[in-house]
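Why should sequence recovery work at all? Because a backbone constrains its sequence more than one might expect. Tight turns favour small or flexible residues, buried strands favour hydrophobic ones, and helices have their own preferences. The token representation captures these environments compactly. In the example below, the structure is given first.
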């Protein structure tokens, strides 16, 4: 009997939650079942997921931004199938593979002119680890500066730059010489850099946790201060890059040139783990400065043919389907339409973002009955109100979304970049309906709120 994935999938389709409960992270299964997200998805195409009953869901999470070109894009599938059949030499190691050279050339054509070299790895957090090492070696300094509310990954070096305590708790001691400063605050940055012992300032152009957008003057001043004090300016574009914000790179919104750009997520179309660092020749030549140092940093599976082929195909899709332009247009339409109705809703504070990286932020209302309901939720667990948005969006409107971070009253939209006008209307109509329902304290949605609060309080007691 031959090995067959289709048969395995069919045979065990109904048992995935049981398998995860027994052999993997059972707490994740508990979360999904508690909030009603325990669906059996059978198929995925573009921006849509389909369950076993062929119900269509609009995916506004896109694997945390991985599926920027949509799921299972035929161009990338074709490139991967072709690569598999060519019997190419792969991971020879004592060699320099062709496809990684071609992908490096294609990526660097999109970056600022000062970046002329590429380093490939397997993930975003590996790209951050590489940036830390490269910055320290190049500058002969040890300190790394990052921002509050930042997220750069969960390996030990990247975790040391994480602005959220829930991810760091219990994993210390972490990397020494890491300094956290407020985001969008150049006075704090200059104070940190003025000691002239900072190797790198690593910063997200738009923070993923909360979708926090800086003032227009922030990044030009960041670039100036880093040059002034000899610190490398590292833009973490792992989530914001490759068209997400309506520009190919988010830093283009502010016309700055970092010393390194970190990338991953969308680069391979969601098929193969991949990460990369675009960097200056000065940094590359500093780290790899002798023949005996040619292997001082690397990764076994980096530059593998499948990841590189997927990357080349993904960039081709981005160009041919004009997904950067679509991201800018559809994202602006969604934000403008929702903001236009903000005055109707006491709970809605603002809708902000760039391209298809969108935050919908909620606030305490003024009406006494609404305020009492809000306070009840906040007392149980800060940020719980957003579950009253995301759960009905999923259950009633078949839209998959996420909360922007722990303890935040912000819902985050991070969809594929190929959304259509139909998808835009689907999002706007569902969001308006759901937000309107939260203003009916006697309605069914607040029964959900009370249940969520009850669960939260029980978890606090058991913790």
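From this structural description, the recovered sequence reads:
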């Amino acid at each position: 009997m031959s090995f067959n994935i289709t048969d395995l999938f069919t045979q065990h389709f109904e048992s995935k939650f049981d398998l995860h409960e027994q052999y993997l992270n059972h707490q994740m299964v508990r979360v999904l079942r508690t909030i009603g997200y325990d669906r059996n998805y059978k198929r995925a195409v573009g921006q849509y997921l389909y369950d076993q009953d062929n119900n269509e869901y609009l995916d506004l999470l896109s694997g945390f931004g991985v599926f920027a070109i949509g799921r299972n894009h035929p161009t990338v599938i074709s490139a991967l199938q072709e690569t598999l059949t060519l019997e190419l030499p792969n991971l020879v190691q004592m060699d320099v593979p062709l496809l990684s050279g071609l992908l490096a050339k294609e990526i660097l054509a999109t970056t600022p002119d000062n970046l002329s070299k590429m380093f490939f790895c397997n993930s975003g957090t590996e790209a951050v680890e590489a940036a830390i090492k490269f910055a320290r070696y190049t500058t002969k300094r040890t300190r790394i500066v990052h921002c509050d509310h930042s997220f750069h990954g969960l390996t030990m070096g990247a975790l040391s730059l994480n602005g959220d305590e829930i991810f760091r708790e219990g994993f210390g001691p972490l990397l020494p010489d890491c300094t956290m400063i407020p985001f969008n605050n150049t006075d704090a940055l200059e104070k940190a850099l003025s000691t002239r012992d900072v190797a790198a300032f690593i910063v997200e152009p738009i923070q993923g946790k909360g979708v926090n957008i800086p003032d227009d003057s922030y990044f030009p001043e960041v670039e100036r201060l880093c040059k002034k004090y000899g610190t490398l300016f590292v833009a973490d574009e792992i989530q914001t890059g490759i068209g997400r914000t309506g520009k190919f790179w988010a830093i283009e919104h502010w016309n700055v040139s970092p010393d390194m750009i970190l990338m991953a997520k969308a680069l391979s179309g969601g098929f193969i783990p991949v990460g990369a660092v675009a960097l200056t020749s000065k940094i590359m030549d500093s780290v790899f400065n002798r023949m005996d140092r040619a292997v001082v940093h690397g990764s076994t599976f980096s530059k593998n043919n499948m990841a590189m082929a997927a990357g080349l195909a993904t960039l081709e899709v981005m160009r041919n389907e004009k997904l950067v332009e679509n991201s800018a247009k559809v994202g602006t339409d969604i934000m403008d339409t929702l903001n236009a109705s903000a005055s109707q809703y006491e709970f809605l504070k603002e809708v902000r973002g760039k391209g298809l990286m969108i935050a919908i932020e909620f606030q305490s209302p003024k009406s006494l009955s609404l305020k009492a309901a809000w306070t009840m939720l906040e007392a149980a667990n800060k940020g719980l109100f957003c579950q009253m948005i995301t759960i009905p969006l999923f259950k009633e409107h078949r839209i998959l979304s996420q909360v922007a971070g722990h303890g935040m009253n912000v819902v985050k939209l991070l969809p594929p970049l190929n959304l259509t006008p139909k998808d835009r209307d689907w999002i706007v109509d569902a969001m308006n309906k759901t937000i309107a329902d939260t203003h009916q304290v006697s309605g069914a949605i607040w029964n959900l709120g009370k249940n969520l609060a009850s669960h939260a309080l029980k978890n606090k007691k058991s913790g």
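A few observations help interpret the result. The mean pLDDT is 95.
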